[in-house]
Amino acid sequence: MAASRPVQRRRLTVVAICLLGLLLAAPTATAGPTSSLATPAAAAAAPPVPELHWTDCGEGFQCATARVPLDYDHPRGPTISLALSRLPASDPGRKIGSLILGAGGPGESGVDLLRRVGRSLGSEEVRARFDLVGFDPRGIIRSTPLRCFATLAEAQAALAPFPFPVTAQEERIWVRADRTIARACAQRGGPILDHMATANAARDLDLLRQAVGDRRLTFFGVSYGSYLGATYANLFPGKVRALAVDAIVDPVAWATGRGDQARTQPLFNRLRSAQGAYATLLEFFRLCDRGGPNCAFSQGDPRRRYAALARRLLAEPAQLPDGPVTYADLVGFTFLSLYEPEEWPLLAELLQQLDTLTRPQAAAAARQALRARLGTSQQQDYPNEVEGRPGVMCADSDNPDHIRAWKRAADASDHRFPYFGRLVTWASSICQPWPGRDTDRYTGPWTKRTSNPVLIVGSRFDPVTRYQGAVTLSGLPEVLSVTVGEPG
Fold this sequence. Notes:
Blueprint: H1 9-25, E1 55-56, E2 62-69, E3 79-87, E4 97-102, H2 110-117, H3 124-129, E5 130-135, H4 152-157, H5 168-188, H6 198-211, E6 217-222, H7 224-235, E7 240-246, H8 251-255, H9 267-270, H10 273-291, H11 302-315, E8 318-320, E9 323-325, H12 327-338, H13 344-357, H14 364-374, H15 385-396, H16 404-416, H17 420-426, E10 454-459, H18 467-473, E11 479-484
Parallel strand pairs: 4-5, 4-6, 6-7, 7-10, 10-11
Antiparallel strand pairs: 1-2, 2-3, 3-5, 8-9
């Protein structure tokens, strides 16, 4: 939910320019002995640094597995595995160190992120002088995973059959689905269930820093990866060489909220993600209207046309050969499309086709085109998104005790921020019955002074991780901040 998305190419260009100056100006990341724990501990109790044995895994990438403690309170006790990938520096003779990437989600794969963006991240100079390293966080996908079902199909079958609940009956179905998943994790999740908080991922990150031979960490985190970066910076402030974060999660809102906010406000309501999504949708309407014939949904007033389309779908779903398209489907695919401004022309085409389809004069051609665009491919493996994502976010965050708080918050948020209030609110309801508890999570303070400046990149019109998150995080000492302008 917190910006679970591909990295935007336009923003990568901006970040690349900033990274070049930050990374190359920072002290060289030479190897040396360091402590892997944020709190003082006897040297004998420190966990062993993983030994990495890199092997070729195709297309110039290398793969390895690291063993790290399951529980850092018992650093030499049971271990779990972390999956890593590496794109070696293109000029090994000039190599400075390793640049480790933090993926979004929570629940996204850093191994996959490196595959997607490794060759386009930064500049030729950055790629020449750094090994780029991605890793799947503990509990996620290729690392020792939290798996609560026998198969991916079984996990997906446990989900509610709609993107978010709209009616009271759908709310009951949604809550039952949450409880089904929580029960399955309580029964089958295993020890990893209670050790998935971001603080433990940050401790893993510090061991990985040592394993690749760097005295201090060089890190770039996006979306949820920004929370991992902020957590590392506050647990290990003296171990930061160069740290850059983009699409910022407000760490106070994510962990605890302010005051007694968490008693009534679920996680994503505290982040005000619905406000960010609605503001981004309004910007889409503005640019579409300004684009005229270049935007397929520009005829008339796009904002009013969307509202009318939403009302029609609330009254009666659109019937496609493969099944109905509901109001929740409309809001869901709109929300996902807002992540990537380069996809907004496609969103306009989808809205135009659906608008035509839901009118009395709907054309068969529009119906067929919409069905093709909304089609999805089936995943053949078990990426554990159903349980991996809540395994992290519920371990990290305080949330209300009773599900009634989600009902009230959803109604209030949807009234203030149409379309997205209910979607955003119910995305965290799984945390109410969630069985996992990580006593080693980190809840602040978030103001430790790091050994080198932190680069914060904030973007306006981000539908989930609002620009205001970057403003909050910029309260850290010695921060460099960058604002990315409007899309389009």
